[in-house]
Design goal:
heterotrimer, B: mainly alpha, 71% helix, C: Rossmann fold, OB fold (Dihydrolipoamide Acetyltransferase, E2P), 6-stranded mixed beta sheet, 5-stranded antiparallel beta sheet, membrane (chain B)
Chain lengths: 290, 276, 333
C-alpha cells in the first residue's frame, strides 16, 4: 500500500518524532563529549580549558572508580539472579491451576508500580532500620541482636530493594511466555516418558530462553542507571561501599560540581550501556523479522 | 499449560501461591497499615499488626503540613502532559511505520529504541546546564518535555505493535471508499486502535508518574512531583513512619490501581513487543 | 461507464520488475478475470488499476481520461478485498454507508442506497449487526454492498472467494455472476482458480511472471491456447504433454492433449500404458496412465461406468482434431 502520496504523507508524519528524538539524543551527547575533554568545574568556571584526556584519566584512576565498577556489577548481577530465578519459580507457581489467580497476580505485580523513592524509604525505615524496623523486631523475637543492614551490608540491602522492585517485571514476562507454551508439547513429552524435572529442563526452559534473554537485557539497561534507591538509602556509603558507576558520576556532577569529570564518567557509562544495548537490539530485532 | 488436577493438589498450590504473593506484596500492605497508626504505635516493638488505634490523622497531617496537593498536582500535570504530548507525536509516526513501511523503517525503530538506552547520568551535566540556561529548572514544562522524550520510544513502539495488528487492507478499503488521510485515521484507524492507544496511555502515565531520576534532579519545589516529595522523607526527623506511610500510600495508590488494569500491556510495552 | 485502458503499464519494486510493460483494454460492462499462479503479479496489476500502488511506467485511462496520477478515491472504482476489509467497529449499515458518508451524501440518500443494496444482497435483516457477528458469506455480501452503493465505473475483486469454504464459494460465484448480469458494470476479478475464471469471465487474462500470456474468452483459451503455459493452466484436469518422437510424428516439438480428448480401450489404440490411480467422480472417471513411454503420466477422462483397475493395461486414442501442437519455444503451431 504505498503510493507516492502515502509515502510523502508518511514522511511528514514521521518527522516530528524523529527530529525530536534526534535532538534529544545528539545535543546532550555532544555536549557530554565536549565537556569530557575540558576542565570545567561549575564552582570555578573561570578555570575552563581544554585538557585532552585528563578527565578520563582522573576518573578512571580515582580510587573510587574500580570499586564503583565492581559494585555496579554486583548490583546488576545480584538483582538479575534473584529476579530471573525467582521470576521463573513464581511464574511456574502462578501458572498452575489455583483459586484466585487474578488476585495473586495483582499482589505479585504490585511492587513494580511503586515509585523508587517510596520503595527505598519503606525498606530503609520500616524493614532495615536497626531499632524500629521489622527485621530488627524479628531478630529480637528469635533472640538475636539486631543487624544494621544498610550500615553493615549496604550493597546487599540495596540489591534486595531493587530486586523486590523488579521481581514482578521478570515474573510477569516469564509468565506470559510460559502461557504461550502449548500444552500439547508438554503432553507429547509426557507421552515420551519425560518426568517433570526433565520436562522443565528440556521443554519449558528452552521455551523461556527468549523471554529470559529479554528480561536480562532490559533489566540490565535499567539497573545500570539505578540512582534514586542509593541516593535515599545509603548515599553511596558507608564510605564508598554502595557507590556504583551511576552514583559516582552523579556525585561528581551535582555534589562536586566537576562537570568535566562527570562527563568523562558519563562517556564511560555510555560505553558500558552500549555493550549491553547491542545484545538487546539483536534480540529484539530478531523479533521484528518474524 | 493448565491441566486438570486433583482438588487436593490445587488447594496445596493455592496456599503456596497465596503465601508467596502476600510475601511479595507485604511491604505495600504493611505501609498501608502503618499509615493508619498513631506515630508511637507505628514504631512499636514488637510490631502491632491490626490491633492498633486506627486513625486518619497522618493523612490530614501530610496533606496540611507538608503541602501534599501541590506535589500531587505536579505529578498529575507532568504524567498526563508528557503522555498526551507523546501520543500526539507518536500516533502519526507509528501510523507511518506500520502502514507505509519503507526500507529504513526497521532501522528507524531500532534507533528509536537505542535512544532509550542512553544512561541518564551520561547526559546529566549537559542537560542540567541546558535547563539552567533556558530557565527550565524546576519548571513543569521542562519536566513534561523531558519525560515525553524519555518515553517517546516506548509510546511509538507500543503503538506500532498495535497498529501492525490492524490489517492494511482495511485502511486501503477506506482509501478506496474515498476517505482522505485524515478521515482514514479518524474514522477507521483510531476507533480500531482504541484499546491499544488506551493501554499505551496507561502504561506511560505509570512510567511518567514513577520516573524518579530527572524529576528529583531537575526540580526544587515549584514543579516538584511526588517522587521529590517522598525523597524529602529520607532525612530522619524523629518518629515519622506513619506519616511516611501515609504519604507513600497517597503517592502510589492511583498508579497502583492503574497498574493492575494494565498488566498485559505492561509486558508488551516494556519488552518492545519482544514478548506478547 | 467503465472502460479501462492500460497502456505500457509497468511496475518495479526497487530493481525487481514485477510487471514488465503491458497493454490491455477492458471494455465497458465486461467481466474480466485476471488468472495466474500465485506471485504472477495479478493482484499487483489490480492494485495499480485501483490506485493503491503507483505505476512505475505507462498510463491508466478510465473512460478515456488519464487516471494514472489520481488517488484511489478519485478513480470512481470500488474494490472487494480478499479479507473483505470490513470496518469491525461499525455496523453493517455504517459499513455500507461509509463511502457515501465520505462522498458527503445527505443522510436520506445514504439510507435509500444502503437499503437498496441490502435488499439486493439479502442483508436487510443484518443491517444493525457488526461484521464480527456475520458468517463468511454474509461478510462477503457486505463487502460487495459497500462497493455497489458507490455506483462505481468498475468493480475490482481481489480473490474474494478464497476465504470461503467450497460449497459457499460455488454459491457466491453464481451471485457475483448474477450481479454482473443485473448491473452490467465492468468487473475485474482476480483469482488463482481457473475454474472461477472459466465459469465467470467474459474475458480471461492469463498472467505469468507479470506478463500477459493470453487474453480471450474462456472457450478461446480452452480451444486455442497460445502457448504451453496457457494450455497447462486452463482446463481441469490438466492437459497431458508429450514430447519426443511421437510428438514429432504429430507435427510439433510438444504435443498436448486434454483428458477429455482421449479415448480409452482395453485392446486398441496407438498409445499403450498401465493404469495407476483412478479418480471416480460418478459421472466421470479420471485415469492416470503410466508407462506409456510418452510422458510420465497421461490423464484420461472416461465415462463413469468404465471399469479398469490399478495395473490394467490400456490403450489410448487421441482425437486427431483436438491435438494441440507447440513448437520449440512453446508457442502454438
Amino acid at each position: 500500500m504505498s503510493t507516492q502520496a502515502s509515502r510523502s504523507a508518511a514522511r511528514t508524519m514521521l518527522s516530528p518524532a524523529v527530529i525530536l528524538l534526534f535532538v534529544w539524543m545528539i545535543v546532550p551527547l555532544v555536549l557530554t563529549l565536549w565537556f569530557s575533554f575540558h576542565r570545567y568545574n561549575l564552582l570555578t568556571p573561570e578555570r575552563y580549558g581544554f585538557i585532552w584526556f585528563q578527565n578520563y584519566a582522573n576518573f578512571v584512576t580515582s580510587p573510587d572508580f574500580w570499586g564503583a565498577i565492581v559494585n555496579t556489577l554486583i548490583l546488576v548481577l545480584g538483582v538479575l539472579f534473584i529476579t530471573v530465578v525467582g521470576g521463573i519459580l513464581i511464574a511456574l507457581l502462578i501458572d498452575r491451576p489455583i483459586w484466585g489467580q487474578g488476585p495473586v497476580r495483582i499482589l505479585v505485580i504490585s511492587p513494580f508500580f511503586i515509585m523508587p523513592p517510596v520503595a527505598a524509604l519503606v525498606w530503609k525505615n520500616m524493614f532495615f532500620n536497626p531499632t524500629n524496623g521489622l527485621f530488627a523486631a524479628a531478630f529480637h523475637a528469635i533472640g538475636l541482636r539486631p543487624y544494621d543492614f544498610l550500615g553493615q551490608a549496604p550493597l546487599a540491602s540495596i540489591i534486595v530493594i531493587v530486586a523486590w522492585q523488579w521481581l514482578p517485571f521478570a515474573t510477569l514476562i516469564l509468565l506470559t511466555a510460559l502461557q504461550s507454551l502449548s500444552s500439547e508439547q508438554l503432553e507429547a513429552a509426557e507421552m515420551d516418558g519425560a518426568p517433570p524435572v526433565k520436562r522443565f529442563w528440556y521443554i519449558v526452559l528452552p521455551h523461556l530462553s527468549r523471554a529470559i534473554t529479554v528480561v536480562v537485557l532490559i533489566q540490565t539497561i535499567f539497573l545500570l542507571g539505578i540512582l534514586v534507591e542509593i541516593l535515599v538509602t545509603t548515599n553511596g556509603g558507608p564510605g564508598t561501599q554502595s557507590t556504583t558507576l551511576t552514583f559516582l558520576v552523579y556525585k561528581e556532577a551535582l555534589l562536586n560540581f566537576d562537570a568535566g569529570k562527570a562527563a568523562a564518567g558519563g562517556v564511560v557509562a555510555v560505553i558500558l550501556a552500549n555493550i549491553v544495548a547491542i545484545f538487546l537490539m539483536r534480540a529484539i530485532g530478531k523479533n521484528l523479522d518474524a | 499449560m493448565a491441566r486438570a488436577v486433583s482438588t487436593q493438589r490445587k488447594a496445596f498450590n493455592t496456599v503456596v501461591a497465596w503465601g508467596v504473593a502476600l510475601l511479595i506484596a507485604f511491604p505495600i500492605i504493611w505501609t498501608v497499615l502503618t499509615s493508619f497508626k498513631p506515630e508511637p504505635q507505628a514504631v512499636a516493638t514488637p510490631p502491632i499488626w491490626l490491633g492498633f488505634d486506627w486513625t486518619t490523622k497522618n493523612y490530614h497531617d501530610v496533606v496540611q503540613q507538608r503541602g501534599y496537593f501541590s506535589f500531587f498536582l505536579n505529578s498529575v500535570i507532568i504524567a498526563l502532559g508528557s503522555t498526551a504530548l507523546g501520543l500526539l507525536i507518536a500516533i502519526p509516526a507509528a501510523w507511518s511505520m506500520a502502514f507505509v513501511p519503507g526500507r529504513r523503517t526497521r532501522d528507524l525503530l531500532m534507533w528509536m529504541l537505542s535512544t532509550k538506552m542512553m544512561p541518564a547520568v551520561a547526559v546529566l551535566t549537559p542537560l542540567y546546564l541546558i535547563f539552567r540556561t533556558l530557565g527550565l529548572l524546576d519548571s513543569r514544562l521542562g519536566l513534561v518535555v523531558v519525560l515525553m522524550l524519555i518515553n517517546l520510544p516506548i509510546i511509538v513502539w507500543m503503538l506500532y505493535t498495535y497498529f501492525k495488528e490492524i490489517p492494511g487492507e482495511i485502511l486501503e478499503a477506506a482509501r478506496m471508499d474515498g476517505a482522505s488521510l485524515w478521515n482514514e485515521i479518524l474514522y477507521v484507524l483510531t476507533p480500531m486502535a482504541i484499546p491499544g492507544i488506551a493501554s499505551t496511555l496507561i502504561l506511560n502515565i505509570i512510567l511518567a508518574w514513577n520516573e524518579a531520576f530527572w524529576t528529583i534532579i531537575l526540580t526544587v519545589t515549584d514543579a516538584a512531583p511526588l517522587t521529590k516529595f517522598i525523597s524529602g522523607f529520607s532525612s530522619p526527623q524523629g518518629l515519622f513512619y506513619a506519616k511516611l506511610s501515609a504519604a507513600s500510600t497517597m503517592a502510589i495508590a492511583p498508579i497502583l490501581i492503574m497498574g493492575w488494569f494494565s498488566q498485559k500491556q505492561l509486558v508488551r510495552g516494556l519488552t518492545f513487543g519482544a514478548v506478547k | 461507464m467503465g472502460q479501462i485502458t492500460l497502456s505500457k503499464v509497468a511496475k518495479r519494486f526497487g530493481d525487481a520488475e514485477v510487471i514488465p510493460p503491458l497493454d490491455l483494454i477492458i471494455d465497458d460492462g465486461e467481466f474480466v478475470v485476471f488468472v495466474g499462479p500465485s506471485g504472477c503479479g495479478k493482484s499487483t496489476l489490480l492494485r495499480l488499476i485501483a490506485g493503491l500502488e503507483d505505476t512505475s511506467d505507462g498510463r491508466i485511462l478510465i473512460d478515456g481520461k488519464d487516471a494514472t496520477a489520481l488517488g484511489p478515491a478519485q478513480r470512481g472504482l470500488a474494490m472487494v478485498f480478499q479479507s473483505y476489509a470490513l470496518y469491525p467497529h461499525m455496523s453493517v449499515r455504517s459499513n455500507i454507508a461509509f463511502p457515501l458518508k465520505m462522498a458527503g451524501l445527505d443522510k436520506a440518500e445514504q439510507d435509500r442506497r444502503v437499503e437498496g443494496a441490502a435488499k439486493v444482497l439479502n442483508l436487510t435483516n443484518y443491517l444493525d449487526r457488526r461484521p464480527g457477528q456475520l458468517s463468511g458469506g454474509q461478510r462477503q455480501r457486505v463487502a460487495i454492498g459497500r462497493a455497489i452503493v458507490r455506483e462505481p465505473a468498475a468493480f475490482l475483486f481481489d480473490e474474494p472467494l478464497s476465504n470461503l469454504d467450497a460449497a459457499l464459494r460455488v454459491g457466491m460465484r453464481l451471485e457475483i455472476s448474477e450481479l454482473h448480469e443485473r448491473l452490467k458494470t465492468t468487473m475485474i476479478y482476480v483469482t488463482h482458480d481457473q475454474v472461477e475464471a472459466m465459469t465467470m469471465a467474459d474475458k480471461i487474462v492469463v498472467l505469468n511472471a507479470g506478463r500477459i500470456e493470453q487474453v480471450g474468452s474462456p472457450l478461446e483459451l480452452y480451444r486455442t491456447p497460445r502457448n504451453l503455459f496457457v494450455a497447462g493452466f486452463i482446463g481441469s484436469p490438466k492437459m497431458s504433454f508429450i514430447t519426443g518422437a511421437e510428438a514429432q510424428k504429430a507435427g510439433g516439438a510438444t504435443v498436448g492433449v486434454r483428458p477429455e480428448h482421449l479415448r480409452v480401450s482395453p485392446s486398441e489404440g496407438p498409445w499403450r500404458g498401465t493404469v495407476g490411480v483412478s479418480e471416480h467422480l460418478g459421472s466421470d472417471t479420471f485415469f492416470h496412465v503410466h508407462d506409456t513411454g510418452l510422458a510420465p503420466v497421461i490423464t484420461v477422462r472416461a465415462d463413469g461406468e468404465v471399469a479398469l483397475s490399478h495395473g490394467d493395461t490400456v490403450h489410448l486414442t487421441p482425437q486427431a482434431d483436438k491435438i494441440h501442437r507447440f513448437d520449440q519455444n512453446g508457442l502454438r503451431i
